Structures are given as structure tokens and as C-alpha cells.
Amino acid sequence: MLAAKRLILKSALLPDGWRESVLVEIDASGDIVSVTPDAKLSDGESPGGHAVPGMPNLHSHAFQRVMAGLAESGSSGSDFWSWREVMYRFANQMSLEDLESVTAQVYVEMLRSGYTAVGEFHYLHHQPDGSPYDDSVQSSLTVLRTAARVGIGITHLPVLYMRAGFDHPSPRSEQRRFINTLESWQEIVKGSGRLSEQSPNTEVGAAFHSLRAVPQELLREAVETLDASAPRHIHAAEQVGEVEDCVKAMGVRPVAWLLNEIGIDRNWCLVHATHADAQEIKELAGSGAVVGLCPTTEANLADGVFSFDAFSMAGGRFGIGSDSNISVGPVSELQYLEYGQRVITGQRIRGRPDTTVPRHVGAALWRGALAGGAQALGRSIGSISAGCRADIVLLDGDHPSLAARTGDALIDGWIFAASENPVRHVMVGGDWVIRDGCHRLETEIEERYREVVARLA
Ligand code: ZN
Q1: How far is it, in rounded angstroms, from Cα 121 to Cα 87?
Q2: Which of 95, 156, 376, 456 has CB 3.0 to 4.6 Å from 269, enough for a Cys bridge?
Q3: Catalytic residues
Q4: Strand 232-235 to strand 206-208: parallel, antiparallel, or no bridges (unpaired)?
Q5: Looking at the whole model, is its pTM more than 0.85?
Q6: How far is the CA of 179 from the centre of ligand 1 (A)?
Q7: Dist. CA 157 → ligand 1 center (Å)
Q8: pLDDT in tens, 109-144
């Protein structure tokens, strides 16, 4: 196939390690068709810098960016549940235009930080009064169109949300925009799927808010209707209180129930498996599912710390997400993830005891999150190799935090030492979406975002 675009990358992280003078050929649809290291001088664009595969952000609630930093005051004793009340207040004021403005802003921020794809866990389905839009897929359509306009890859995940809690069969009035029947939710999933067929940067999966929000028999029924390979996500065990409620109502912990009753496999992403116990961690690691870790949100909401070391030692797969978008960027998520484990274990470099090769911690985290994120989003991304989307991040070769580094030490420098963002150019599906740190629409997008925050805050 004829290449529509040829890139010459000075140095690049490929599946078998760092290579130099890499020729990447990309077809008109944005797929990589060939990757040739040590290429002889060739015609093509040479953007300079160090190339890494763009990071998938496997869990986002884009609209929550509007309240980031605005829920940091109040009376003592504030926790996840009181934060949620603030979130409901914002959620129930937003029009579709507001949703579009906030989503555009946070997606631009994601691209500038090195995320090239997002998993949008979307539950703002209906009008502010809870009645459906004329077209039930209108809210999903707004998100998908915004992702296309900004140029980020997306796996759209319409969320099934049915009740307020294990022993609350009805939703609360604050949850009115989120609520669907099984049938109305399936309509949104199918409608979104039809839209996604138009773009190779788009995929549609399914999401279940949590066991507390979806009755178990309906969850089982819903899962049976999904396409065999569709990505499926769920908030698993974010809060101690919900694990306790689950045990009280169902006699079993939520992750254990999902493993035993649903048959969790590699199509699944369990977001916030924070309070999985040792047995659940072991079985989850063996299931092939991805655990979606959102360390900055989990810290901000005082959720707790996931047993990441035990999970990794058992061969578990993970990816990262920006979740509430209190912080937007793979660097802060990976830093928080790693530092949480260091604080708990008292050790800086850890890992499987059978590994004798010195580890670059930052680079190992980056590779792990690429693979897990790509799996969770169900798209051919996360690698600079033939058959994958051309989602590539170029780091500034002159950035002081990357000085005198090569190979994996570059990623360590980026994750642990770069207080300023070294992301210079970003390509998604073969198109440059960030050039010299800027997005072509950022001025107008920021202007609209400021107006929405000023009105809603
Ligand atoms: Zn979430």
C-alpha cells in the first residue's frame, strides 16, 4: 500500500526497544503500514526529538473537569460521598453546549500532556430535568463529535445506571440525567456504535456504573447482549462503604462477584479495584482483565491505595485514567501510582524477584500502561508498529530534564524529573494535533471553557 505520510524519527520507542533513524510509513486512514529502524536517508518529515507511543487514557468523565479544584473547601469530614453531591450540582446544570465546551477543553489538555486516546465513561445521557433528548443518542453524539473536532482517539462507553444503591431500587432525583432502562441504554450503545463506524479513531464499548447502580441480574442480561469483543468497563470497588454494602446485600465482595458470576476476561476493565483483597487481586491478575488505575483522583477523593505491587507480581495488567480530571496527564498518574507504592513499601526500585535486569521504573510503567490502556480501549493503539494507529508523542530533545539521556532513561526523566511539560508534537491517526505544544483550536476552546466555568462555578 502506498504511504500517505513518511516520518523519520530520530529516536523512537518500538516494541523491541529504542531504535534510531526510524522510518514510519502511514497510510491515508492513519494506520502505520511499516516501521524501519536504521533507515538510510529517505524522503519524509523529520520532526526531531524522541518518539514514544501516545498514552491511552482509559477512564475519563470529561464534564467533571469544570469542577476541578472547586470542591476543595468545606467542613471537615468531607469524603467521596460529599464530593459526589458537589459533582451532582454541576452535572445537573450543564447543557449539551456546556458539555461540549468542557469536553473540548479537557481533550485538548489531554493531547498536550501525551494522551492520544480516551475512554469516555459517559453517564450524562439526558436533559437536566431527566427527560430524554429528542434523539436519545444526542449526548453521546456531542462527546463523539467533540473528540473528532479536537482530534483525540476515543472509546465511547455509554454507562448503564439504574438505581441509587444496593438497597435503593429507585434512583435519587440528583441522578435523573444518568438513568436508563436496559432497553433505552442499549439504544444509546447501538446508536453510538453506528456513529463510530464513520471514523477509524473511534470505538464504542459499554460500561456499567457499578454493582451498586446496576442490579446483578440486569448486569448479567446486559453483558449477554454485547458484541463478543466489545470493551466493557465498570467501577469495581472504589470505596470501603460500597464494598461493605455489597457484602451485606449480596454476601460477597464486588470484585469476587464479578470474577465468579460474570466471568471477567480480557475484554473487561475494572476501574478502581482499589479495595480488592489479596484473593481478589490474585484472581483478577489471572483473569487477563485490565485494572484501571486513576491515582490522582483516587488520592484526591481519599479512596485508598490499590495493591499495585502484589497485582503486578501476579502478572496483572493495568492502565491509567484521569477519571475526575482533577489532574490531566499520564505523568501525574504514573508518579502518584509509583510514589504511593514507595511510601507504603519503603522501597524505591521494586519488581518481580526473578528479574535481574536493572529496571527503569518510569519506562516500565509507561510500557505497562500503554499495553493495558490499548487493551481496555479495544483499539490498535499503544505501539509504534505496523497495523497500529499512528498515535505518536514527540518529546523535546532539548528539554533540560531530558538532557544527556537516551533510551528508557528519557522516560524516567519525563515522569520523575520534568516539572515542565516536554511534549512538543503529538500525532493522532497520522494527523498532527499538537505542534510546538499548541493545538490549533486552543484559543477559541479556552474562551468558551472560561465562560462555562464562570457561569457554573
Ligand atoms: Zn469514574
Answers
A1: 15
A2: 376
A3: 272, 323
A4: parallel
A5: yes
A6: 16
A7: 11
A8: 999 999 999 999 999 999 999 999 999 999 999 999
